[in-house]
Automatic annotation (TrEMBL):
<keyword id="KW-0132">Cell division</keyword>
<protein>
    <submittedName>
        <fullName>Cell division protein FtsI/penicillin-binding protein 2</fullName>
    </submittedName>
</protein>
<dbReference type="GO" id="GO:0071972">
    <property type="term" value="F:peptidoglycan L,D-transpeptidase activity"/>
</dbReference>
<dbReference type="Pfam" id="PF00905">
    <property type="entry name" value="Transpeptidase"/>
</dbReference>
<feature type="domain" description="Penicillin-binding protein transpeptidase">
    <location>
        <begin position="375"/>
        <end position="645"/>
    </location>
</feature>
<dbReference type="GO" id="GO:0005886">
    <property type="term" value="C:plasma membrane"/>
</dbReference>
<dbReference type="InterPro" id="IPR050515">
    <property type="entry name" value="Beta-lactam/transpept"/>
</dbReference>
<dbReference type="GO" id="GO:0008658">
    <property type="term" value="F:penicillin binding"/>
</dbReference>
<dbReference type="InterPro" id="IPR001460">
    <property type="entry name" value="PCN-bd_Tpept"/>
</dbReference>
<dbReference type="Pfam" id="PF03717">
    <property type="entry name" value="PBP_dimer"/>
</dbReference>
<dbReference type="GO" id="GO:0051301">
    <property type="term" value="P:cell division"/>
</dbReference>
<dbReference type="Pfam" id="PF05223">
    <property type="entry name" value="MecA_N"/>
</dbReference>
<dbReference type="InterPro" id="IPR007887">
    <property type="entry name" value="MecA_N"/>
</dbReference>
<dbReference type="InterPro" id="IPR036138">
    <property type="entry name" value="PBP_dimer_sf"/>
</dbReference>
<dbReference type="InterPro" id="IPR012338">
    <property type="entry name" value="Beta-lactam/transpept-like"/>
</dbReference>
<keyword id="KW-0472">Membrane</keyword>
<dbReference type="GO" id="GO:0046677">
    <property type="term" value="P:response to antibiotic"/>
</dbReference>
Length: 651
């Protein structure tokens, strides 16, 4: 950081020193301190500096005039300025050198600055012997610090460290300077403040994607009335692309003013917002939680990666000690002299696996969704998380990683793998799909009460027959479903670099509970990222923990799962393709590119068949995806169309 100050006035310290030497050799001085040598006077001076009581020391100014100890005590405190309440550590450096009736010693001064920074230097102390043998200290402000003059004081300035960036998979900063427009109003040009507020409100509501939270203009008339006539009363800061949408509607409104600048922003307003978190001015809570670490005006990471890696990203602040002088109006101003500086340590970047093109496609796919929702995309070949998108919901809520919700029929992917592994069923084995199936008095049914009769297992899977899977549940045993889920990474302890819920699979329980768990109901809970990783494992043939943060690399990633049996996973892939070609996800048949495999899911979440979440999991080429819509109803109504928009954007 460079500081610009007015030029210093010339100094006359050498002249004053010469005058002092002449005076003390020509006159008899009456002193307060005695002893055998000047070292005792130096020690008494240091002890008095520390204690704030200098009465044991005699002082003279450079002209030889006596100075009261109280005045020296007061001047030391004034010169110390912002450091006055944390006195330095002081010691004498060696023995003073005596030349007839004058002597010069040296002292070591060490201040402890904020952040436990140490500032150490040495200063000479000149002394003169009076007629009674007492050694007296030549007092001047430079004794406290070399560049201090009378009327100066020391001031401490925090030097902020450059905050490092969160990087995408290519190593480019996700957050970078991007153009924005500050929209404001000049009160003197407004005749109808209420009417202006209404027209601005209508324009802001037309921005797409919608501004979240909405711009509150209810107090604009009062703010205009309270402001100075020529003030710029800021209303909102818009990204340039949002401003262009409504420029024609607001540019010529009476009193509107516009300021273009750049701010550190992600590529879009919704770009992985919950995952990335935000960087904001330090709050009162931040300052209270970490006193001495944060200072007012600091930029602090909140939530997501910015919060998790805040210490790494923000670096370490530096510190500067400058001199100040009181101006004509009584306020302190810098003199232009920096007497100490510890440079800040820049933050270190955090590199992720996010792919901007995939993330933009994910955000765009959820853009029109009004319900809480999430989309996670994982690269099949290496498990890299390519996109993490979240729809409407509380700010900072990363539903994609932390949701704990039933998977519904997407879990038939896990159940089918377990059944195939145990040779309990084959691809073409006939399995009855009645309208209802009862276990221990609990009746299970299919969506919209359909029945298929006795059909090949592949058809039960493609059409998502709940009753067929409920009937097959006993063949999985008490633990078969949980064991298969763990093969696909569910319930594992992941080290992803952020909080994540990896699932909880139903195990044991009553026959009715096991029947419900076989098609993703019961007590089984998952998150979208857990299902995306499980789906990638089916496509790859082996589960590997997803990767999100590459640097710093997580220290304890979960070990890879076992190789899936080809005789089990190949039929499963065949059935997941048939879900798209002839089953519940035929809306994805026409998506350009490589074949799409998948499984739909409709999950009841409160034992009320009318209340259902919507799911889709699947893959196309090297991209596996999981889509979740809270209270989304049928998968064909919400999750599948979102998936189609996402895959088409990648085509």
């Amino acid at each position: 950081m460079s500081l610009s100050y007015p030029p210093r006035r010339p100094r006359t310290r050498r002249m004053r020193n010469a005058v002092f030497a002449a005076v003390v050799t020509a006159a008899t001085l009456v002193g307060c301190s005695g002893g055998d040598g000047p070292e005792e006077s130096v020690d008494a001076f240091l002890a008095g500096w520390r204690s704030g009581d200098l009465h044991a020391v005699g002082f003279r100014d450079p002209t030889g005039a006596r100075i009261p100890a109280e005045r020296v005590t007061e001047e030391i405190r004034e010169l110390s300025g912002e450091l006055a309440d944390r006195p330095p550590a002081l010691r004498r450096s060696g023995e003073p050198k005596i030349t007839r009736d004058s002597a010069e010693g040296r002292i070591s001064v060490e201040w402890t600055l904020p952040g436990d920074t140490r500032w150490r230097y040495e200063r000479p102390v000149r002394l003169a012997r009076s007629g009674d043998g007492a050694w007296q200290v030549a007092w001047e402000p430079a004794l406290v610090q070399e560049q201090l003059l009378r009327g100066d004081r020391l001031a401490v300035r925090r030097v902020a460290a450059p905050r490092a960036a969160v990087l995408d998979a290519a190593g480019a900063p996700i957050v970078a300077p991007r153009p924005v427009v500050r929209v404001g109003v000049q009160p003197s040009e407004v005749t109808d403040a209420a009417g202006l507020a209404r027209r601005l409100d209508a324009a802001f509501k037309a921005v797409r994607p919608a501004i979240t939270p909405p711009v509150d203009l209810s107090d604009l008339p009062k703010r205009l009335a309270d402001a100075k006539p020529d003030a710029f009363v800021e209303v909102v800061t818009l990204r340039e692309e949002a401003y262009r949408q409504i420029r024609a509607r607001i540019y010529d409104l009476p009193g509107t003013k516009f300021r273009s600048e750049k701010l550190e922003l992600a590529p879009t307003r919704e770009f992985a917002r919950a995952l990335l978190g935000s960087v904001d001015p330090a709050t009162a809570e931040d300052l209270a939680a970490k006193p001495g670490v944060y200072a007012e005006g600091d930029q602090v990471g909140h939530g997501g990666l910015q919060g998790r890696y805040d210490e790494r990203l923000r670096g370490a602040a530096g510190i500067s000690v400058v001199t100040e002088r009181r101006g004509p109006e009584g306020t302190w101003a810098p003199t232009g002299t920096e007497v100490f500086r510890k440079d800040p340590q820049p933050g270190q970047a955090v590199k992720t696996t996010l792919d901007p093109a995939v993330q933009n496609a994910a955000d765009a796919a959820l853009r029109g969704e009004r319900r809480r929702s999430a989309l996670v995309a994982v690269r099949v070949s290496d498990g890299a998380v390519l996109a993490v998108a979240n729809g409407p919901g509380p700010a900072g809520e990363n539903l994609a990683f932390t949701a704990q919700v039933p998977p519904g029929s997407t879990f038939k992917m896990v159940s089918a793998l377990g059944l195939l592994d145990r040779q309990a069923v084959t691809l073409d084995a006939p399995v009855d799909c009645p309208k209802t199936f009862t276990v221990d008095g609990r009746s299970f049914k299919n969506s919209e009460n359909f029945a298929l009769g006795k059909v090949p297992f592949r058809t039960d899977f493609a059409k998502s027959c709940n009753t067929a899977f409920a009937a097959l549940a006993p063949k999985l045993g008490d633990t078969g479903l949980a064991e298969t889920g763990r093969m696909l990474g569910l319930e594992a302890k992941w080290d992803l670099g952020v909080d994540v819920f990896t699932g909880k699979v139903s195990t044991g329980g009553t026959p009715a509970e096991r029947a419900a768990a076989a098609f993703g109901q019961g007590t089984t809970l998952v998150s979208p990222v857990a299902m995306a990783a499980a789906t990638a494992a089916v496509a790859r043939g082996r589960w590997e923990q997803p990767k999100l943060v590459l640097d710093p690399a997580p220290g304890q990633p979960a070990p890879a799962g076992p190789q899936l049996k080809p005789e089990s996973v190949e039929p499963l892939r065949t059935m997941m393709r048939e879900v798209v070609t002839s089953g519940t996800a035929t809306a994805l048949r026409g998506v350009p590119g490589k074949p799409v495999h998948g499984k739909t899911g409709t999950a009841e979440y409160d034992d009320n068949p009318a209340n259902t979440h919507s799911w889709f999991v699947g893959w196309q080429g090297d991209v596996a995806v999981a889509v979740f819509v809270e209270k989304g109803g049928s998968s064909t109504e919400s999750a599948v169309p979102i998936t189609a928009r996402f895959l088409r954007a990648l085509a």
